[in-house]
Specification:
- By secondary structure, the chain is an alpha/beta fold.
- The chain has a single domain, classed as Rossmann fold, CATH 3.40.50.
- The chain is built from 4 helices and 9 strands.
- The protein has a 6-stranded mixed sheet, sandwiched between helices. It has a 3-stranded antiparallel sheet with strand order 1-9-8.
- α2 (48-57) links the parallel β2 (38-44) and β3 (63-70).
- The chain is globular and about 50 Å long.
- It binds 1-O-pyrophosphono-5-O-phosphono-alpha-D-ribofuranose (PRP) and 7-hydroxy-pyrazolo[4,3-D]pyrimidine.
- Residues 43-46, 69-72, 78, 101-110, 161 line the site of 1-O-pyrophosphono-5-O-phosphono-alpha-D-ribofuranose.
Length: 182
């Protein structure tokens, strides 16, 4: 596999990610075994690959919907202002909602999303997040299912981007500082 020069090193390879996604899917499938009307809400754009892999490993019936939020524009510093770009297509009232997110950094995005969705009166509301950077947290947010804790580095691949690039790398890699500090 050719690793682009912009990547300092691979943090999580394909096998490691796939194994953890399978574990998360098994845990979620067990926890939701008796739940009817389950809906996964993927947070675009970053969660699209994680959601696709997770959803295909679930053994419980579920619907899939999406919401698009943005707070980073084209840089590596959160603006702190979360913008709703695209809302879900279906109502979530009375449904068991599982938010599927790629990363929690400052926590602003997930906090905004959970507050917004809670006001719509779902039967339950949980969050499944692939990556968390605990050192960066500004707002405490509950994460019910977590893939990996990672250090304070900028990561790309498996859906995650820098300025909309690198999303389709099959692994999660650390971006060289020179790429975003020049
Ligand atoms: C990224 C990421 C999360 C959010 C996490 O989204 O996908 O949604 O930042 O950061 P926070 O915890 O500091 O709020 P971004 O705004 O870059 O949009 P994108 O998913 O379209 O890349
Ligand atoms: C958002 C985000 N997007 C991509 N890579 C990271 O390391 C990130 N932190 N917060």
């Amino acid at each position: 596999m050719k690793i682009p020069g912009a990547i300092e090193r691979v943090l999580l390879d394909e096998r490691t990610i796939a194994a953890r996604v399978s574990e998360l899917a098994a845990q979620i499938s067990a926890d939701y075994a008796d739940a009817e009307n389950v809906v996964l809400i993927g947070v675009l754009k970053g969660s699209f690959i994680f959601l696709a892999d997770l959803a295909r490993r679930l053994t419980v019936a579920h619907h899939v919907d999406f919401i698009a939020l943005s707070s980073y524009n084209r840089g590596v510093v959160s603006t702190g202002a979360v913008r709703l770009i695209l809302d879900t297509r279906t109502s979530i009232s009375g449904r068991h909602v599982l938010v599927v997110e790629d990363i929690v950094d400052t926590g602003c995005t997930l906090n905004y999303l959970l507050c917004t969705l809670r006001a719509r009166r779902p039967a339950s509301l949980c969050a499944c997040v692939l990556l968390s950077k605990p050192e960066r947290r500004q707002v405490e947010v509950p994460v019910d299912y977590l893939g990996f804790e990672i250090p304070d580095v900028w990561v790309v691949g498996y859906g995650l981007d820098y300025a909309d690039r690198f999303r389709t790398l099959p692994y999660i890699g650390i971006l060289r500082r020179e790429v975003y500090e020049k």
